[in-house]
Design brief:
Chain lengths: 320, 290
């Protein structure tokens, strides 16, 4: 793999199979990614899609079964120490050092990465100040609130000014207010030019933060584009789903020949219409039921979003 | 509810590498990790060493002070050389404390790091190859074992009834230092191996089935030579690594008593330290990298 100056993270046909009974678990089945320097990149997918395994391989702690991955041009297996020097990682669990204070967590992280004792202490105080944690300086990291602990972990990942910051489900389990606060923190980092790769299973998180998103499911990338690009490439802007307590009315079946409708999917007692001009369509689907003598049991209209994109890509509802 | 100042979001926290970005060397990272261990050790000094000190302290108190006072002098027949029981106990209790502390100093934190929250990932992300991280853990726990052993010394030297004073005489300092250091490292390497092999729910079993018989039958309370009378036990005992630490200390501290030959204890200490370190490094790496 030749180091390319503008690419921060690259994977080529990356695979990971965890050994176990019956052939093990194929967590990642051929993932290709390219993240440029300065980019805010999101891996979006439901739980169990292979996102954490992918980030584990990129941060050198999970060994790929096949394929290649590099960070800043360094192979994650052959040059793992060079990779570790250039990355910061915020994992899903609280992995703060409970034997040390909040301040010492940062101080020693700095020293692990080659800062002298005095520089490490100065950097630790600087980060605590920036992230509003100064008053928790001498406290045990396990006495912090969920949001504070996450912020301290971000501080710790930034001590040595990494080229790429990885965050695995940074807002999972946080209350909505704390989540929005954390988004502000991440946006601020990006504005400073920090390259960020984050995994999330929250659609709105990916939409709110990421320049580009790779939609991942069952260990594969289904699509990778800007958020707007993903919405556009689905070929439909709005998804309307109507369920009936009997057969889908005949009039509905003919809808796919109309302008402004790109696809009609028929299921048992259910129709899903992908439309670029959705005005009045939901009403029409409901009225059609009355004339055919069936009852509507459920109806929904999803505005164009990553969720409709996911639906179009996978044919399934998004499961969080 | 946590709120943060608006400034936090727009701070200059994560600039891409500026020219002054440190370039850590492996040695620097290794030493920084040892510095972390020392900081933690300093904070938890009392709680860390109380558990290693209490057992030998109580033991010498009962066997070298109380029993001789109440007429249990029959205990005082160490090695057939007429030495007091206290003389037998000095190397034995120092050696067994080193081994116990070496194992515990690595097993207890490891159980937390590998399982609960998997906080080992934090240390594993430091710019050090994972096998070197294992070596660092062995070095750190070895240091604790050594300190533990040194703390036991005064207790076993000075607690005794009148006339029961141990007769200790170091005539070969290099051997003493070497046995103390190798014994510490061997114990912590063995601890790392056990800690990475056993299921965390079975730590109790480790203590009951491994450490307990190891210390009771580790030639702590009698020299190995005295086992002449129970020949089968004398041979089986050779499988116990603690025996070589205690016999080495006997050679260094109480040379007047029967003890194994230099090549026997030193050979085993060197080879088993090397072997245990090598295998613990491998099992540790397997547990950390998935």
């Amino acid at each position: 793999m030749t180091p390319s100056p503008e690419i921060a993270v690259r994977t080529v046909d990356l695979h990971k199979t965890y050994s176990g009974p019956r052939g093990g678990v194929q967590a990642v089945r051929g993932i290709d990614l390219e993240v440029r320097h300065g980019e805010f990149f999101g891996l979006l997918g439901p739980n169990g899609a292979g996102k954490s395994t992918t980030i584990g391989m990129l941060t050198t702690l999970v060994v790929p079964t096949a394929g290649e991955a590099s960070v800043c041009g360094y192979d994650v297996v052959k040059r793992s120490v060079d990779v570790k020097r250039r990355i910061g990682m915020v994992s899903q669990n609280n992995t703060l050092d409970s034997d040390l204070t909040a301040f010492e967590n940062l101080e020693f992280r700095g020293r692990f990465f080659g800062l002298g004792a005095r520089d490490a202490r100065r950097r630790a105080d600087e980060l605590l100040e920036m992230f509003g944690l100064t008053e928790r300086r001498g406290g045990n990291p396990f006495e912090l609130s969920g949001g504070q602990a996450k912020r301290l972990m971000i501080c710790r990942a930034l001590v040595h000014r990494p080229e790429v910051l990885f965050l695995d489900e940074p807002t999972a389990g946080l209350d909505p207010q704390t989540r929005v606060n954390l988004w502000e923190v991440l946006r601020g980092l990006q504005a400073e030019g920090q390259t960020i790769l984050l995994t999330t299973h929250y659609m709105e998180e990916a939409e709110a933060l990421c320049d580009r998103v790779a939609v991942v499911d069952h260990g594969r990338v289904l699509a990778s584009d800007t958020v707007d690009g993903l919405k556009g490439s689905t070929g439909a802007d709005t998804v309307i789903t109507v369920s009936y307590d009997g057969d889908v009315p005949d009039g509905v079946r003919a809808l796919d020949r109309r302008d402004g409708i790109s696809k009609v999917e028929l299921g048992e007692g259910q129709v899903r219409v992908f439309a670029t001009a959705p005005d009045g369509l939901l009403g029409e689907l409901v009225t059609a039921a009355a004339s055919a003598g069936v009852t509507v049991t459920d109806a929904s209209q999803l505005r164009p979003s990553l969720e409709t994109a996911f639906l179009t890509l996978t044919g399934r509802e998004y499961r969080e | 509810m946590t709120t943060i100042s608006p400034a936090a979001g727009t701070s200059a926290a994560g600039r891409p590498p500026a020219p002054h970005v440190p370039r850590p060397t492996l040695a620097r990272t290794f030493l920084a990790m040892m510095a972390r261990e020392l900081r933690v050790l300093r904070k938890n000094f009392v709680s860390t060493f109380v558990r290693v000190l209490m057992q030998p302290l109580m033991f010498v108190f009962v066997f070298a002070y109380v029993l001789p006072k109440i007429g249990g002098g029959a205990m005082a027949a160490g090695g057939g050389s007429g030495a007091t029981f206290a003389t037998v106990l000095v190397p034995g209790l120092v050696g067994s404390s080193i081994v116990m502390q070496g194992v515990m100093a690595v097993v207890f934190p490891l159980m937390m790091e590998l399982n609960w929250q998997r906080s080992i990932t934090d240390r594993a992300l430091a710019p050090l190859p994972v096998p070197l991280l294992a070596v660092q853990k062995i070095a750190a726990a070895g240091l604790q074992a050594l300190i533990g052993g040194l703390l036991v010394f005064p207790a076993v030297l000075f607690i005794h009834a009148d006339g029961q004073a141990p007769s200790v005489h170091v005539d070969n300092w290099p051997v003493l230092v070497l046995v103390l250091v190798l014994g510490s490292l061997m114990a912590s390497a063995g601890g790392l191996l056990l800690g990475t092999l056993i299921d965390p729910q079975k730590v109790q079993v480790l203590f009951a089935l491994v450490l307990m018989p190891m210390s009771m039958l580790g030639c702590v309370y009698y020299p190995w030579a005295a086992l002449d009378h129970v020949r089968w036990l004398q041979i089986v005992t050779l499988l116990n690594p603690m025996v070589y630490v205690n016999e080495g200390l006997r050679a260094a501290l109480t040379p007047q008593m029967d003890h194994m030959s230099f090549w026997a204890y030193m050979g085993v200490l060197v080879v088993s330290t090397a072997l245990l370190t090598w295998s613990a490094t491998r099992t540790f790496t397997k547990r950390v990298l998935t």
